[in-house]
Amino acid sequence: MDENIKGNNKILFEIKGIERSYPGVQALKDVTFNINRNDVIGFAGENGAGKSTLLKLIAGVESPDKGEMFLEGKKYAPQSFREANTLGVSMVFQEQNLVQSLTVYENLFLSHEKRFQVAGTLKKRQMISEAKRYLESFGLEIDPRKEVSRYSFHERQMLEIIRAFVIADMYKIEMPLILLDEPTAGLPEKEREILLDRVKSFSDKATFIFVSHRLSELMNACNRILILK
Ligand SMILES: Nc1ncnc2c1ncn2[C@@H]1O[C@H](COP(=O)(O)OP(=O)(O)O)[C@@H](O)[C@H]1O
Ligand SMILES: [Mg+2]
Question: What mean pLDDT comes out for the span 23-33?
Answer without folding.
Answer: 96
